[in-house]
Amino acid sequence: MGYSAFQILKDALSGYKGLKPAWRDAEPKDGGYDIVIIGGGGHGLATAYYLAKKHNITNVAVLEKGWIGSGNVGRNTTIIRSNYLLKGNEPFYELSMQLWENLEQELNYNAMVSQRGIMNLIHTDAQRDAFIRRANSMLFAGAGAEYLNADDVKDRYPFLDMKNARFPIKGALAQPRGGTVRHDAVAWGYARAASDLGVDIIQNCEVTGFSIENDKCVGVKTTKGDIKANRVGSCVAGSSSRVMANAGIKLPIESHVLQAFVTEGLKPVLGNVITFGAGHFYCSQSNKGGLVFGGDIDAYNTYAQRGNLPVVEDVCSGGMAIMPMIGRVRVLRTWGGIMDMSMDGSPFIDKTPIKELFFNGGWCYGGFKATPASGYCYAHLLATDNHHEVANAYRLDRFKYGAMIDEKGVGAQPNLH
Amino acid sequence: MIINHPLLGPRDSEEFVYLGSAELINRPDWQNETAPEDFHNYQYIRENIAGENRELWYHEQGDQSWLVVTRNTLTHEISKVELATEVAKKMGRTK
User: Fold this and answer.
1) Partner of A134 at 20 to 30 A CA spacing, among A221, A292, A357, B51?
2) What is the CATH number of domain A20-78+183-252+344-416?
């Protein structure tokens, strides 16, 4: 069933009796699959969708341990942007941005893609130089970038603490095409579109092991029994080390918790996404009016989907420093999600030493914005055996050859990112 | 989290800096034939355990000692705290 304004009207007049589940709740097929994707998050569902849509491979299953939308795809702060610097990154994230721009038409699903713009605040001359260099890199990639001076920033947001003693605001790097997307609608939209093309979405099905014969993966062991597969793709950022350990593969990844926060609803005050990188704070206003914000990871290994209070204090003090008015609103909810922190802050989309077993992970705290391109490029790799040209640098063994993609230039250890 | 320092008693984890797995105490021997591979694994590859994890915490805002903390990464429960120097000496190192 296609969604349209006419359909909404028809449903309303018929008392919504015609509404059906958006995707089939499938059970594993006895005969197995051409490709099994482990992980029914945004990336896994997008991968399945592009496999079916672009590569005509529809004998695909997506295995999800919980339910669709229960993981990081429903736990992030919904920001999309392609304001990267390095060659290995920027074309990839720009592809993602272009896929976001056409996502709703492509999926026939309202994901509330809102290109409201993103602003990275500048506090020093050195930071201005660095951001202008980044802006040039973005312009080369076709991502678009603008430099705002201090008055431009103040005109938009008079409540910002422009004269902050430690971090006075000297301007901002803006990407007008950045913005936010309703995150769980992304999962639902991809799930519905993939399911319509014949993909089996199997929920409550945890992968507990791999069937490996002669260094070749021939299927997975799950809580719903063994499932045969010609090819298996892991796509479980946050739990990558746990899943891949079943295949005897150790990864350059640590799991850390990142917390996020939302306040009570306000009238419109913050039209853009703003980031205060120097103080580890970023914020946007949701369509419901709540200020959605976050900051640093908790900085110790953890698989608990909750953080500790010191980081809550740190993030809130960052908010108070740059937009003191936030002190007058109450935080409604806080939550945490588990990140695959890679050693250089960049992700992996690659083959593994085991034949027919592929790996996608290491998204650090930037996985959501990458969802469409991650699925697109992973599907390309799974279908053709070749890395997509914009995801060619995301190799698992890059540390051996000094080919790190250190976007922030801070060094190759997760506690530095 | 409260870390029960062997010398100073219970301290807020905020006083500490986290480094990573206590495996980092076992620096590979640079004279091994496999040294390039060993150092790659030492520097970049992680066990990333879900459950009881032995890890290094540095008491930066305290007595500046290194501790080996045994902590459950699923619950944040801390079951054991040792001085890293003593752990290293037990493994036959001089310091």
Assistant:
1) A292
2) 3.50.50.60
- Please state the domain extents for chain A: 20-78+183-252+344-416, 114-180+254-342
The CA distance from A383 to A43, in Å, is 16
DSSP H/E element including A153: helix A150-156
Q: Which residues contact A191 (CB under 8 A, 6 or more apart)?
A: A22, A23, A40, A45, A62, A68, A201
Superfamily of domain B2-90: Folate-binding superfamily (3.30.2270.10)
Confidence at A417, pLDDT banded by 50, 70, 90: low
Q: Which residues contact A236 (CB under 8 A, 6 or more apart)?
A: A38, A39, A41, A44, A243, A361
Residue A409 has pLDDT above 90, yes or no: no
Q: Measured between alpha carbons, how far is residue A351 from residues A37, A233, A357, A386 in Å?
A: 14, 9, 7, 9
Mark residue A307 as left, alpha or beta (left: phi above 0; alpha: psi -120 to 50; beta: remaining). beta
In residues, how long is chain B? 95
Q: Which of the residues A244, A301, A305, A399 would you substitute to probe the B interface, choosing the one with the greatest number of B C-beta atoms within 10 Å?
A: A301
Contact B50 A399 (CB under 8 A): no
Instruction: Write down the pTM of the prediction.
Output: 0.95
The CATH code of the domain at A114-180+254-342 is 3.30.9.10
Name residues whose C-beta falls within 8 Å of residue A193's C-beta, 6 or more positions apart in sequence: A49, A53, A106, A107, A108, A109
- Please identify which residue in the block is written with the tokens 């021997």: B29
Query: Which residue of chain B is at minimal alpha-carbon distance from A309?
Result: B1
Rounded Cα distance between A183 and A364, Å, is: 17
pLDDT at position B91: 87
Q: Kindly provide the ipTM of the predicted complex, given to two decimals.
A: 0.94
Chain B positions touching chain A (beta carbons under 8 Å): 1, 12-14, 18-21, 40-41, 43-50, 53, 55, 71, 73-76
Min Cα distance B91 → chain A (Å) is 24
Q: Do A412 and B43 touch (CB under 8 A)?
A: yes
pLDDT in tens, A114-160: 999 999 999 999 999 999 999 999 999 999 999 999 999 999 999 99
Residues sharing a CB contact under 8 Å with residue A386, sequence separation 6 or more, in sequence order: A380
pLDDT for A1 equals 67
